[in-house]
Design a protein that fits this description.
alpha+beta; 5-stranded antiparallel beta sheet
């Protein structure tokens, strides 16, 4: 999984600047916890935006990208999953 942390560019209204990028190995259980419908709905109820991109992988039609935006729209986190 690749985590990319972004902060809003103060000079524009819609662009973000990359702050940090991390690469991490996940177990199947961790992947299921991050991408579960309950956790996505929980963060949506808090006021943040959760965007999910699904793609066909070798293990089926799974979430390959999850984009989370904070309720104040100043921070964004992008999680990209490489499923093998």
């Amino acid at each position: 999984m690749t985590k990319t942390y972004l902060e809003k560019n103060p000079k524009t209204k819609t662009t973000y600047i990359e702050v940090n990028k991390e690469v991490e190995e996940l177990t199947q259980k961790q992947y299921e916890n991050i991408t579960s419908t309950d956790s996505i709905q929980f963060f949506r109820r808090l006021g943040g935006n959760e965007y999910v991109k699904r793609s066909y992988t070798s293990k089926g039609y799974l979430i390959t990208k999850l984009t989370s935006t904070s309720p104040d729209k100043l921070n964004k986190s992008v999680y990209e999953f490489k499923i093998s």
